[in-house]
Amino acid sequence: MRHWWALLIALAGTIMLAVIGTTPPAPVAADPSGGSFSAARAMIDVRAIGHTPHPTGSAENARVRAYLMQRLAGLGLEVRSSGTPMDAAVAARIAAWNKTPLVRPDVVNIVATLAGRDRRRPAVLLMAHYDSVWGSPGAADDGAGVATALETVRAVLAGGRPARDVIVLLTDGEEAGLLGAKAFFARDPLAKRVGVIVNMEARGGGGRASMFETGADNGAMMRLFQRAVPGPVGTSLSVFIYQHLPNSTDFTPAKRAGYAGFNFAFIGRPGLYHSPLATPDALDQGSVQDMGGQVLALTRALLAAPVLPGKAADITFFDAFGLALVAYPAGFGWALFGLTAVLLAAAAWRERGGRDVPRGIGATLALILLSAGLLYLANLVSGAEGPVNYYDRLAAIPRLQVQAGLLCVAAVLAVGAWIAAGRRSVAGLTAGAALPLLLLGGLAQWAAPTVSYVILCPLVLAAIAAAVGAFVGESAGKVAGVVAGALVIGFLGALTFQLLQAVGPDTPYAAALPLALSAVLVWPLMPDLERRRTLAVAGALILVAVGIALWVRLDPLAPSVALFSRAG
To answer: For residue 50, which phi and psi values (nearest 5 degrees)?
Structure first.
């Protein structure tokens, strides 16, 4: 316990894995065979679509529509437009939102069909929206999604005529209230032929593309996703969370109507959401490659399936650093819960660590309260306590992430200084620190089993490391702790990074739970700390975080802020 080497090695592994899990792949140039997804090719369409704002009903919207219909026809698809007149109230609202009279008060979808070899089979629908908000070129939202659909169809055609139809639905009026998608699924006769949907969206301008939402009863569909998609990104946690958020995409009306499907998006570079700066040059081409690679692999698997997977019970799934998808029946979480409890109890008994169990329990509870409190208060200092511009807060997310990271480290050090001195049993400390979290994991497994992996998988690795140390020896236990620590903290670090991108401006204290889970692995590797010096370091980190919060609060409105959100 006197040296830092074990913790430093674990943290080095953590950083490497977290970077792997959050970094998009490099964009791919156009290949001679044409069978791969190429971000370079997709960007040609992004530049044509997203060089200027094109909201619903505008002349630019009509220009983009004409370009897209020509592109789809050039690929050999049967193309038509499908217009739905707006009622007077909707048209007036959109005209006021666009701050310009409507050229055409209709919502006009583009519907294109690539005929498959067997047209009796249910079709695969690729969906994205081609309108932007007023004042934003919309290169990412949703030029990237539209371009991904076009490049996916081109790559599919490079392999010959598919076994079943591909329908491309490019909706209009998404930004005005999902108008095009609602019209298609309510009235278009082609909707009855749809067997599965792949939707593409964006909220920002970069980052990993994640499959964040599915239709109900996703078990069989997700097994196909697991087999088909290399480099997958997606979690059943995001599926659960999105079910309980007020947010919506074009997939929302389809999901409510009972369609099976997959929803992809990237949310990095969040300041570019609905921004006048959301140009093609600002878009991360790696994110386009990431989304396109996953969408193409999934689309090919769906097209090739003799029968599309039917409804089956939801499963628990998560990606391991974007390298592979881990999936298991939701009920298997009870086995993880039981194994963790047995291993922790056995390890603590073996080391006679009962005296350290209460210390560990107190440490976890103190860390959760301290970190959540610091994160909440610093967020207030940053300006979250009053009326805020949503888009200005999005632009501040990178600084808010650094602020949260400093506060989390400070909290771990402060609590670690209290528990390090006088501990006798690593297993006892680990068991105690894990116990409140294990009880929370059991509650999650009972109430929402597809999200319990976030708690139970880290805890089972911590329990294995503690058991190795107790039954094999201290050196072996330290090695096991380093490996488990790198895996767990790297995984939770990547998850927290994405979590703060999604909800950081509003609820940064959501990071308290993954922090507490990480601390179960950190504290056993931490050497004895001199309390006064450690608390001084923690205090310094808090002061720096408060300085960042004041910087965010006092900064002028970001130039990336959506034009329609500005006062006046």
So the answer is: -105, 30
> Does this model's pTM top 0.85?
yes
Task: Give the residue ranges of DSSP H helices in 200-250.
Answer: 219-228, 236-243
CA-closest candidate to residue 391, choices 300, 536, 276, 228: 276
Q: Which residues contact 144 (CB under 8 A, 6 or more apart)?
A: 42, 46, 200, 202, 266, 283, 287, 288, 291
CA distance 473 to 461: 17
Using CA atoms, how far residue 562 sits from 100, 136, 486, 547, in Å, is 16, 7, 39, 26
**pLDDT bucket at 357, cuts 50 / 70 / 90:** very high
pLDDT recorded at residue 1:
43
Query: By C-alpha distance, which of 326, 323, 316 is closest to 230?
Result: 323
Share of the chain above pLDDT 70, in %: 98
- Contact yes or no for 166/299 (Cβ under 8 A): yes
pLDDT grade for 558, boundaries at 50, 70 and 90: very high
E-only strand ranges, 13-172:
78-85, 106-114, 123-129, 166-171
Residue pointed to by tokens 């808010």: 400
Q: What is the DSSP string of 141-197?
A: IIIIHHHHHHHHHHHHHHT-S-SS-EEEEEES-STTTSHHHHHHHHH-GGGGGEEEE
Q: How many CA atoms lie within 13 A of 463 on its CB side?
A: 24
Q: How far apart are CA 462 and CA 450, in angstroms?
A: 21
pLDDT surpasses 50 at 434: yes
Kindly provide the residue ranges of all beta strands, DSSP E only, lying in 203-277, ordered along the sequence.
Answer: 206-214, 261-268
Write out pLDDT tens, residues 190-229: 999 999 999 999 999 999 999 999 999 999 999 999 999 9
DSSP-derived secondary structure letter, 250: T
pLDDT in tens, 65-81: 999 999 999 999 999 99
User: Is 129 in contact with 265 (CB distance < 8 Å)?
Assistant: no
Of 49, 53, 27, nearest in space to 206 by CA:
27
Lowest-confidence range among 268-282, 377-391, 436-450?
A: 377-391
Q: Supply the pLDDT for residue 32.
A: 64
- With b for 16 or more beta-carbon neighbours within 10 A and e for fewer, the 113-134 pattern comes to bbebeeeebbbbbbbbbbbbbb
